[in-house]
Amino acid sequence: MIIGQKTHLRAIERSDIPTFVRWFNDPEVRQYLNMYLPLSEAQEERWYERLLEDEKGYVFAIETAEGVHIGNVGLHDIDWKNRKAVCGIVIGEKEYWDQGYGADALRTLLRFAFGELNLHRVFLHVYDFNGRAIRCYEKVGFRHEGRLRQSRFTEGRYVDELVMGLLREEWEERER
Question: How many domains, the chain?
Fold first, then answer.
């Protein structure tokens, strides 16, 4: 377990799969993710099996200090030569939105990424209409690096995708 101030990050378990399916089948949660179709338990089982074999990523369950599983956070597509990874997070339990849990989970993940994995750069993609996430990422220290114009079609329109990144030295400076 990796301990943050408000959250703990733990390994994903097979028993978590029904919770993921519930979250990802909620259109309000799914709208912010790179998914647009409902998800079956069989699909999530296959994802879990691939996760167990993945040497280029880590996904953790986010739990509150009281042990409530509220989301997931991970590092994906780790490039070990260039010391970089893509970050992703979801708070699936909506009653925990806007309470600082996402920011704490990200800080905890970044401490692991930079302090344990010796990564140099962590970056992410976020849709421009996801103001809550953008504020969270800025709060943690991510900087705007680019905009992929009209990269996602959703609800009858194209939206932009923002690229945000954080370098190790920027993280260390913020932590001092």
Answer: 1
